[in-house]
Amino acid sequence: MSVREDIGGSPLPDGWAAPAHQPGAFELPTTTFEERAHRTMARPFARRAIAGATDHAVSLTQARFADVDHETLRDQGRQIRAHAIANLPDYLEQWIANAEQNGTTVYFAADEGEARRIIAGICVDENIASVVKSKSMASEEVALNSALEGVGVDVVETDLGEFVVQAMGDRPGHVIAPILHRTKDEVHELFSKMAGRDLPNEAEELTAFARAGLRHAFLTADGGITGGNFLIAETGEVMLVTNEGNGRLTSSVPRVHIALVGIEKVIPRRRDLAVLLPLLTGHGTGQQITTYVSITGGPRRDAEPDGPEQTHVVLLDAGRSALLGGEFEEALHCIRCGACQNVCPVYRQVGGHAYGWVYGGPIGAVLTPLFRGQAEGGEVAQATTLCGACDDICPVRIPLHDLLLGLRRQRDEQGEVPRREQMAFAVWGAVWSRPWLYRMTTAVGRGSLGLLARDGVVSSRVPGLRRWTDGRNLVLERRRR
Amino acid sequence: MTDRATFLAAVRSTPRGDDPGQPDRLHAPDAPTELRDGEDRFDRLLHECALNSTVVHRVPEDSVAATILAILDEADAQSVALTEDLGARRQALTDACAAAGRDAAAYADVAPNRARAGALDATITGCAAAVAATGSIITSAAGAGRAGALIAPTHICVVDRDQVVTGLHELFDGSVLADVGSLLALQSGPSRSADIEKVLILGVHGPGNVHLVLVDG
Amino acid sequence: MDTGEAIADHVGVPTVVLFPTCLGDVVARQTVTDAELVLVRLGFDVRQARGATCCGQPAFNSGHDGPARAVARATLRALDDGTDDPILVPSGSCASMVRLHWREVFHKTDDADGALRIAKRVRELSSFLAEQSATIASLQPQLTARVGYHDSCHMLRELRIKEAPRDVLRAINGIELIELPSAERCCGFGGTFSGRYPEVSVAMADSKIQDMVDARIDLLVSADPGCLLQLGGRMSREGSPVRTLHLASVLAEALA
C-alpha cells in the first residue's frame, strides 16, 4: 500500500504493511483444555498479566458499585434481560420493523456460514474493497475476517488491541481486553517490524503509530463492520460502546455500515439503558460509563452532514433460538461484560485461549458447549471448580454454576463422557451406595495410603493418584496423641 | 439464505421461558450514573468532568467566543469546523474564528470530503444535552453529525445551563431527546485505551482534548 | 478423652450427630476425632452417623446423577434416624451439598421427603460452634499462632457462612487472625477438578500460598477438608513451614 494523495492529514506510516490473517479455525476439536491452558501457563508474563489485570478489574468493579444499591440494580438488570428474552420473538419483530422504518436493511443469518455469506455478499454487491472493523465477538463467532479476505476484501481491525491481535495472527485473549496476555515489548517488536524502523518502546508512541495508520484506514475504507451491545426494540437502534472511538468512526465514516448482532441482544426500550449501561460498563472495565456510547438508527438522513449511505444489520441466530424456553435460556441474558472472567480463579491462571473458542471464563464454559455442541465443546464445562464467584458478580444474575452443572449432566446424557470416567463413576456408585462396601473400601484405602506414606505424607506417584500427587503431597491427618 | 419467516419461525417455535414482566421504573435506579439525593447537578458535572479529563470552562455568554479562541490557541488548531447544533451562536463563532485567523467552516460543508474532515484540527459543537452524573456530552446526528464530536484531535462543546440533566435515567426516560436522527451519541471525556499493558493513553481514535464550555449567567 | 466422664452422668444432654463424610473417613480422620472431642467438651452427647457414606458430590458435580443419587441415598437413609438431632458436618462443601442440592438429587423420588428432613437437620460444623462461642470462651481456649483463614467456596457462597469460623477463631486466646487478601478465592481443589486439571489446580493453590507467605502466617485454618487436602498437600510438597489445620482441630488443640 502506498500513501494516497487524496487523503489528507493522515498518510500511512512508512512501511505500513497489510495485517496478517487471523487463523481460520479454532482449536476446540483438536486440543484439550489442559493442553491449551498449559501453553498460556508456560508464559510467565501472560500469567502475571492476566492475574494482575483481572484482579484489578474486579477491584474497580467493586469500587464502582460500593456506594449504590448494587443488588437492586442487578435485580433490575436481570428483570430487563429476562423479560426481553422471554418475549424475544415480539421484541425482535418490533426491532426489525423500526429498523426498517429507519432505512436499515435487515438480514437473517441462521448459522455462522450464512452470516459470512451475507456479509461477503453485501461487500460484493456494494463494491466494498476495504473495511474497517470495530471489535465484535459475534464476528469472531462466525470467523468473519477470513471469509471477507476470501472474497478479496481488506479487513482492518481498529480497536488497538484487536489490531495487534490481527497483525500477530493471534486471537483475542479477553472479551474486553484483547491483548491482556501480550507485553508492550511484543507490541513494540510487531509495530517496529511494520514500520520498518525501531519505534520508541513506549505505550504512547506505539499507540500513536497505530492511530496514524488506522486513521488512514477509516478515511479510505468503503465499509465499516461492528457488532452491537444492544438492539433497542422501541426505536430500531443499535447501541455500541467503545473507549477509543473506533466504533463510532467505523459506523459513521465509511459509505456502508454493517452490524452483525446476536438476536439475544434485544432490549425493549431506550430507558432500559439507564440500568443496563452502568451494569455493562461497571462490570466490564469498572468505568461509570465508557467514553463513547453510540446509538445508531439507520443511514444518514437528509438534513444530516455525514454518516453512511447504507446501513445493514445481520441478525445472528447460530444456536441462540434453540436455547429459548429451555434449561439453558438464561445463558442468553449475558451482556458480554466479562466480569465472570475477571473473577474466575481458573481463568485467572489460564486466560481466554484455553477455552478453545470465542468466549472464555465461566460464560465461555457455558456458551461453548451450547453453541458448538457437547461433542466438540463439552469438555470446557468441566474446567471450573464450581466455586460460584461468577454467580456473585454477574450483573444480570445468570446462574452460571447451575448452568455448568446442567451442561455436565447433559454431556453424560448425550453419551459424550469418556468411557473410563463413565465406568469409574458407575463402579464408585455401586460400591459406595452399600455401607459395608464403603467401610471396607475406605479401610483398605486408609490402609494402603498408610503403607505408602512416610511421616503421614504420600508423595510417591501412586498408581491412580499420579496426576494428583505430581504437584502435591497427599497429607494424611494423623493422631496427635 | 434464510428468509425472515423461517428465521422468525425458529425463534417462535420454542416454548416461552418465565417472564418476570416489564420492569416498572418511575424512579431513577440507584446507579453510579445518577445523582445522589440532594446533590447539585453542576457540582457533580464538574467533578465527573475532572475525573474523565474533560476541561470545563464555566463562563457567561459574552465570554464564550474568547474562551473558545483561547482553547484553539492553546491547541494550536488552525482548521476548525462548527456544527449546526450551535444554533444562533454558530455564525458569530465562525466570524470570531475567522477574525482570529482560523480556517473556520461549517461542518456540513467539510464532512462530505472525508479527507478534509480527517484533517480538521478542532470541531466546535453544541449538544442535545449534558449528563451531570457521568460528565457526558450528548450529541445527535442532526445536530453535530455522526462524527462531528470525535473526528478532530480537539473537541469543544458549548453547553447551556438548562441542557444539563441529572443522570442517564432523565436522559433516556424523559422528553430530553426529541428527534436525534440517525445517531444518539454520548461521549464522556477524551478517547482512551489501556490495551497495551494497562497504560492509559488519551486520544486514540477520537480527540485527546475535550473542552466543555458551560454557559452560565 | 478425659472430659467425657465429667458429663457422662448428665441426663438430657443435647445430642448431636456427627457425619464424618468420605474425606473424614479416608484422609481427615483427626478432624472428625477432634470435632467429636470439642463437641463433648462443649457438653454435647455425640453420636457418629452409622452407615453414612458420602454425600454424592463428586458424581453430582461431574454430571453423573445416577451414581450420585445411589450413594447419597445410602447416606440419607443412614442419617434419617427418626430424630430431630442436628447433623453436624465438618465440611462446608458436603454440608452445602446436603442442604442445598439434595433436593435436586432426590426430586420426584421416594426419598424426596427424607431429603428435606435431612437438609433441615444438617449444620455446617463451624456455624454450629459459633453459636457456642460463649461456652467456648468460658473454657479459656489457648493457642498462640498467627492464623490465616481460608473460606471454602461452597460454604461461603452457597451457605453464606463467612463470620462464624472467624468468630470461633477469635474466641481462642493467643490467636492473631490475619485476613488474607485472597481468602475468598478458590484454592483449586474443586473435587474431581484437582485430578482432571492438576497443573491448573496446583497453580491456583500457589497463588494463594504466596499470599500466606506474604502475610507471614504460621497456621492456615479452614473448615473444609477438601481445601485443606489441596492447600496442605501443595505446601507439604513445597516444604512450606505453614501448618494447615481444620477449625475443629484448632479448637481441640486450644482446649487441650
Share in helix of chain C: 40-55%
Strand content of chain C: 5-15%
Computed Rg of chain B: 20 Å
Percent of sequence in beta strands of chain B = 15-25%
Biggest sheet strand line-up of chain C: 2-1-3-4
Tally the helices of chain C: what do you get?
A: 15
Number of domains of chain B: 1
Order of strands in the sheet with the most strands of chain B? 1-12-7-4-2-3
Instruction: Tally the beta strands of chain C.
Output: 8
Helix coverage percent of chain B: 25-40%
Shape of chain B: globular
Largest interface: A-B, 109 and 85 residues
The structural class of chain C is: alpha/beta
Low-confidence stretches of chain B: none
CATH fold descriptor of chain B: Rossmann fold
Major pleated sheet of chain C: 4 strands, parallel
Mean pLDDT of chain C: 93
Largest sheet of chain B: 6 strands, parallel
Oligomer: heterotrimer
User: Which architecture of chain B does the CATH hierarchy give at level 2?
Assistant: 3-Layer(aba) Sandwich
Record keyword descriptors for this entry.
heterotrimer; A: 481 residues; alpha/beta; Rossmann fold; six-stranded parallel sheet; 21 helices; 12 strands; globular; B: 217 residues; 8 helices
Short overview:
Chain A is of the alpha/beta class and 481 residues long. Chain A contains 21 helices and 12 strands. Mean pLDDT of chain A is 91; it is low at 1-11 and 19-24.
Report on this structure:
The complex is a heterotrimer of chains A (481), B (217) and C (256). Chain A is an alpha/beta fold and 481 residues long. Chain A has two domains: 1-417, 3-Layer(aba) Sandwich (Rossmann fold); 432-475, no CATH class. Chain A is built from 21 helices and twelve strands. In chain A, a hairpin with a 4-residue loop joins strand 5 and strand 6 (237-242). Chain B has 217 residues and is an alpha/beta fold. Chain B has one domain (39-215): Rossmann fold (3-Layer(aba) Sandwich). Helices cover 29% and strands 24% of the residues of chain B. Chain B has helices spanning 4-12, 41-51, 64-75, 89-99, 107-110, 114-118, 141-144, 168-173; strands at residues 54-59, 79-82, 103-106, 122-125, 129-131, 136-140, 154-160, 164-165, 183-187, 192-193, 201-202, 209-215. A six-stranded parallel β-sheet of chain B has the order 1-12-7-4-2-3. The model of chain B has no long low-confidence stretch (mean pLDDT 94). With 256 residues, chain C is α/β, with parallel strands linked by helices. Chain C folds into two domains: 4-128; 141-255, Rossmann fold (3-Layer(aba) Sandwich). Chain C is 54% helix and 14% strand. Chain C contains 15 helices and eight strands. Chain C has helices spanning 4-8, 21-26, 29-41, 57-61, 65-79, 92-105, 112-121, 125-130, 133-138, 153-157, 163-170, 193-196, 198-215, 225-238, 247-255, and strands at 15-18, 45-48, 87-89, 122-124, 142-150, 173-178, 219-222, 243-246. In chain C, helix 3 (29-41) crosses helix 15 (247-255), helix 6 (92-105) runs antiparallel to helix 7 (112-121) and helix 13 (198-215) crosses helix 14 (225-238). The longest helix of chain C has 18 residues, at 198-215. Classes of the chains: A alpha/beta (481), B alpha/beta (217), C alpha/beta (256). At the A-C interface, helix 1, helix 14, helix 17, helix 18 and helix 19 of A face helix 2, helix 3, helix 4, helix 5 and helix 10 of C.
